[in-house]
Design goal:
single chain
Length: about 180
């Protein structure tokens, strides 16, 4: 689905991944979190930083992902040539929500109409995952998926919630119960 290796991780795993031949990095950090010094190993033109909370609905006191963020993510990934990128690492704080959504968006842009397969791929790369629904919704609109990306995410969330009820409970407790199907 991609001509290069794709990895996803959290902040506490960065060192291990940066020693595996990573050539490009997408960092999604909380608004006030400093850029980790260890990312200096990657040339500045080969990395991009986004700053927003892991929010899925607009709310006071939180910076949520915006359509401009998703547009910038897609534009940056489209600017990568197959010969440049050998190994792309996408990370956020925990490596569960924002980073998995960003990775799915990049794959979706390069593989239109394969939304279900994309989430299966994300699941193989990062088994503990719960892609951010606001990011996917914005990408669904930007990429012209007509709701297919959102529908695939809902099915994916249902599978994950069934497989990992503890993760679903954590998601529920963090104000994201709307992402969990009612019958789970």
């Amino acid at each position: 689905m991609l001509p290069f290796t794709l990895s996803i991780c959290g902040l506490d795993e960065l060192n291990g991944f940066l020693n595996t031949g990573v050539t490009h990095v997408i960092s999604i950090l909380d608004p006030d979190y400093p850029v980790p010094d260890r990312l200096a190993k990657i040339a500045s033109e080969n990395r991009i930083v986004f700053r927003f909370d892991d929010a899925t609905v607009p709310g006071a006191g939180r910076i949520h992902p915006a359509s401009t963020d998703i547009g910038k993510l897609v534009e940056w990934s489209r600017g990568l040539t197959d010969s440049q990128v050998k190994h792309l690492l996408v990370h956020c704080h925990a490596g569960i929500s924002r980073s998995t959504a960003a990775a799915a968006i990049i794959v979706a842009d390069k593989n239109p109409g394969r939304e279900t397969e994309i989430f299966e791929m994300i699941d193989r790369i990062r088994p503990r995952n719960w892609p951010n629904s606001m990011m996917i919704d914005l990408a669904d609109q930007l990429l012209g998926c007509g709701g297919a990306f959102n529908a695939a995410l809902q099915s994916h969330h249902a599978r994950i919630a069934t497989r990992d009820p503890d993760l679903a409970e954590i998601i529920r407790r963090h104000g994201r119960a709307h992402e969990i199907p009612d019958d789970i």
